[in-house]
Specification:
Largest sheet: 10 strands, mixed
Radius of gyration: 18 Å
Distance between the termini: 47 Å
Number of domains: 1
Shape: globular
Helix content: 25-40%
Number of strands: 12
Number of helices: 10
CATH class: Alpha Beta
CATH architecture: Alpha-Beta Complex
Structural class: alpha/beta
CATH topology: Spore Coat Polysaccharide Biosynthesis Protein SpsA, Chain A
Order of helices and strands: EHEHEHEEHEEEHHHEEEHHEH
Strand content: 15-25%
Amino acid sequence: MTTTALAVSIVTYAPDLAVLTAVLERLDQALRHAQRGGLLEQARVIVVDNGPGSGWREPLQAALAAVQPSATVEVLSGHGNVGYGAGHDLAFQACREPIHLILNPDVLLEPDALSAGLVFLAAHPEAGLLSPAAWGENGQRQYLCKAYPTVLDLALRGFAPTGLRRRFQTRLDRYELREWTGDQPFWDPPIVSGCFMLCRRTALEQVGGFRPDYFLYFEDFDLSLRLAAVTRLASVPTMRVVHLGGHAARKGMRHIGLFLRAAALFFHRHGWRWW
């Protein structure tokens, strides 16, 4: 069995500390499971403090200390709110481990999630980015893999009222690649969610990590497409997580504005598709 080293980066901005502590506890369980299975020799957890303000370093350090993790831990702070992608890039530059997990501060890992991913990577050297099977806190399945989006897809999924979305459910199911998301690995999805990305460092180095100008949205879409040019993406259903996150439209006008700006940047770079 191949043994490796893993770095985990988590970018925070005014996090719910109770949720973050639960995330860290579940992450530590998954790290220990992989270590006991002989899959993981050492691990590093880097929490990137994007603020707001300068008062979050100590609470974040306290949350890490409370978990008593089996990994080396570090808090990067003092750089201000550089954005989601740029925050992960800071963590990536601060470590050298061959496997890197990009993790949201609202994702709970099942105990064997990392073990399943490391086994898959060892068996498939052609794979450079893995996405898990995910459920919401209500037990409803989430679909982290996506087809290349159209403007209509994004508008329906993010902003349309429930009744209108129902009329387009077949279309939205296609966009979420639901027919391909089952109990078997799904190879080469065009796009995967940035809430959990288990990556080979070599692949991330080839593409230079995230592009920081997206700030908050679509950086994962952009990274998926660029990684697909140098490696293979796979959805691995034996990696199971619970994702507590929500959509931009539920977070207020500022988030809607950031979403629309990032969408325009993404389509300008990769090609506009309207419907």
